[in-house]
């Protein structure tokens, strides 16, 4: 029964045509501070614009879900973020949510994080192990935000494929179903990461990306090399037309659009605002 529940929830997260997942995250305030996150300061308006673009899911904390998702019940899946690091503890995720809360709130997955190869990997992995067992028992998919950003990893090695692969394989071995991590920077090395990991690997928006072209090119490359989807945040909700960008990304991920086609669609949407036609 529990395994059927997990399969049902996973089916709502992954597009059957593309076999990819597209999620947008709005869980950044605890980890990074709210003052720099201008796109999240009017949070209800931002969530409304994201949902209008019809992603598969959104990652958020329980408080934001309770305040902001009533009018969107059933429109997009909730991925309940149950842990976070903070500006003063950037390598240590602490849990503040539970699997039972996710079930009560109608979430389709639980999401927790870990910074590997650092001083707190042991306690974070222990926590993931507990969540994994409970999620399996209760039929809830488990998503891990796992990055090689521990104290032992120099900043210029945080996108090295060996370190990203270690994150993904470790997460899979701990029982995580969907692993959110960093793109290595090129499709060949990212394909190696995917080959190392039997669980679904999805990428974040990318700390190295600065422009629209950067994000669109990274997304297209990632889909082509076998990555199982995206969970993007900051660039999306800082973009002037959030809904248009969500739709353009969705067409890259699920419809196989090229970067050129996606940019043309984006320009048309920004001009005509006919979001409901896509």
TrEMBL record:
<feature type="active site" description="Proton donor">
    <location>
        <position position="147"/>
    </location>
</feature>
<protein>
    <submittedName>
        <fullName>Fructose-bisphosphate aldolase, class I</fullName>
    </submittedName>
</protein>
<dbReference type="InterPro" id="IPR041720">
    <property type="entry name" value="FbaB-like"/>
</dbReference>
<dbReference type="Pfam" id="PF01791">
    <property type="entry name" value="DeoC"/>
</dbReference>
<dbReference type="InterPro" id="IPR050456">
    <property type="entry name" value="DeoC/FbaB_aldolase"/>
</dbReference>
<dbReference type="InterPro" id="IPR013785">
    <property type="entry name" value="Aldolase_TIM"/>
</dbReference>
<dbReference type="InterPro" id="IPR002915">
    <property type="entry name" value="DeoC/FbaB/LacD_aldolase"/>
</dbReference>
<feature type="active site" description="Schiff-base intermediate with dihydroxyacetone-P">
    <location>
        <position position="180"/>
    </location>
</feature>
<dbReference type="GO" id="GO:0004332">
    <property type="term" value="F:fructose-bisphosphate aldolase activity"/>
</dbReference>
